[in-house]
Amino acid sequence: MNLGIAFRISLKNKKISQSELARKLGVSRGTVNKHLHRWENGETPTLRTLKKWCSGLDEDYKKFLKYM
Question: What's the predicted TM-score (pTM) here?
């Protein structure tokens, strides 16, 4: 599993849509989708970005470090 898939699973488990996450992060749904796709293809975010996204999911960022 990689970071993008881990985030998609977390979104699904928490019943949060990409649109809802985008609203929480202050970005467009397209931006959320673009980042998830990049992360599924091996790119990694900065730690700052990871922490911001995890706060939007109400998750501890440390949970996702193993996928980076």
Answer: 0.88
